[in-house]
Amino acid sequence: MALLQCEFISESLEISASMNVILPQGKLERPFQTLYLLHGLSDNHTIWCRRTSIERYADQHGIAVVMPAVNRSFYADMSHGAKYWTFVSEELPKIARSFFPLSSEREDNFVAGLSMGGYGALKLGLSFPERYAAAASLSGAVDVNRLATEGFGGDISNVFSDPAAVKGSSADLFALAERAADRQDIPMLYQYCGTEDFLYDDNVRFRDHLRKLQINATHVEEPGTHEWGCWDRQIERVLQWLPLKRD
Length: 247
Known about the structure:
It comes from Cohnella herbarum. The chain is an alpha/beta fold.
């Protein structure tokens, strides 16, 4: 595998942006299947490589992994900040494919993340089911409406101009799931949360919401808190779960 740190100019962010990329090594028989792997609130594009064995896991499956930096944006076009939703949903895939031999086919593209990144992964998968074959959330901040109304971490006011308007909007995963429920192309969904995690109750509500909508999803829970030992185990399982083309 090759591990690259890539610095590039982002037009949507109007800054020099960063991403780490893992690429399979060897003969290129077709454009690489790709996992967009998203970080949490307090992390950046380097954290998955620093705290898990993602490079080793990706090597076992022959998959490319793109890990962008989005700061504390909640994967949104921020009210007071940059357009990170435009960046991650529109600009990033195009730029990554212009630099590296990554497939643009839906069946070859997947997204996953932890905590804030778990929210971002489900937001991408439910907003653009025609682009992603699977989306996985690990200890995801799935109820952003609750976090917004409670003023989570002081960051929400920077993200949303009116936190009270989050419910039912395109930022609300519960609303996105309702809008996607009748589609035939909903991505495969994977939702994990540890039973001692402070986001566990939110994840239970979202799990039950998907079941009520009759949206099929793989739900996994086990003893655990909001920590990297859990996420390292789970990202290995996510790669095993993905519908990869295995030679």
